[in-house]
Amino acid sequence: MTARPRLVVVGDPAGRRVAFFQDALRSAGLPGARVVSWPEVLRGRARFAAGETVRLDSPGEDPEADLLLREVDDPARVEGTGRWYARFVAAVAELARSVADAGAVLVDDPAELADLFDKRLSHGLLRAAGVPVPASPTSGPSAPVVRGWADVRALAAEPGLRRMFVKLAHGSSASGVLAIETNSAGRVQATTSVERGPDGRLHNSLRVRRYTSEREVAAIVDALAPDGLHVERWLPKAAQGGRAADLRVVVIDGRATHAVLRTSRSPMTNLHLGGTRGDLLAARAAIAAAGARWTDALDVCERAAAVFPGTRCVGVDLLPSTGWRRFAVGEVNAFGDLLPGLTGLPGSGAEGLDTYAAQVAAQFPRTRRLTSTATATSTATSTSTSTSTSTTGTSTA
Questions:
Q1: Cβ pair 320, 278 in contact under 8 A
Q2: What's the whole-number mean pLDDT along residues 305-317?
Q3: 41, 170, 233, 278: which is deepest, by most CB within 10 A?
Q4: Which of 340, 332, 250 is CA-nearest to residue 17?
Q5: pTM, entire model
Q6: What are phi and psi of 34, to 5 degrees?
Q7: Does residue 380 register a pLDDT over 60?
Q8: Alpha carbon distance 343, 273 (integer Å)
Q9: CA-CA distance, 118 to 109, in Å (whole number)?
Q10: Which pLDDT band holds residue 369 (cuts at 50, 70, 90)?
Q11: Degrees, nearest 5: CA angle 275-276-278
């Protein structure tokens, strides 16, 4: 008789991600996972046992973990992502050593997490592998460091960078992202969810706003720069219903299994910033009408995921160009699977399964049939009650 797996999930015990994963295990007839919180890990109190299989999930919904990682007492504050990254990477490396010393197994590669949570490094790896990505002067470990607005202003004069995205190198959920445009007369404007308070502190807002004063834009960029910045060309996106469109595609064990189309009136399509789920079938039809193939779009995502072979599940942000003929990868998210109510693509092998159930089925293939039946029932309930989707990081779809 095959021994039943002994599973551990490191995450937020009260969070949605852990709850969805536990639901997927129960639906598959598997025992629930033991939960270890990120604060336990960050304080060096996490313990593991021989024979356990350890899954890492996002610390993004845990306020205590956020405080320990960033030392910022207001979760809405933007600053502190550089400190977050350094402490998170160190904690994961130490966790990996503890897991190995105990004779347990860690599901994902901690070194790849370090790359995935640095947009400069991940962009450079994707580019080196031939995956189409927006042009970037900050891509790769040897790229120049952007120290503030003066550097960004100089980059805006380079070919193709009159319209650019400036992103926190270690940000997620569109935190600290600015879509910056410079016209032929040199005037600057930026679209962002960042709100700058009277004291100069930066806060994430659910309202996307536009700054038309270069002085204001410069102040925001200068405040973000100490945490590390990534700059890339702002590619013109395809549109659906007059709204900019892109896709979040989940790739599990190298295969694209789930996709959601996101549309927005702003450059940021994240659903928590006012983006909405678009019509995926209509997007596929638009791709076919343009003479391209849906399988080509999925292939780009699978090629991006292949750059990180030690990470079993990633969420790929796919940018279809104007006209729906070409595709580029905006980002690859380590924790990009929080898509409630979304079931697998036809022909993906994950039909009827949500993203968590599909991961369980991929890891434990004998559970697939039971999981599919149970997930179909739970998805009907989830779809009727869920109106928004949050996935970065700490990633939000």
A1: no
A2: 98
A3: 170
A4: 340
A5: 0.91
A6: -75, 135
A7: no
A8: 23
A9: 15
A10: low
A11: 130
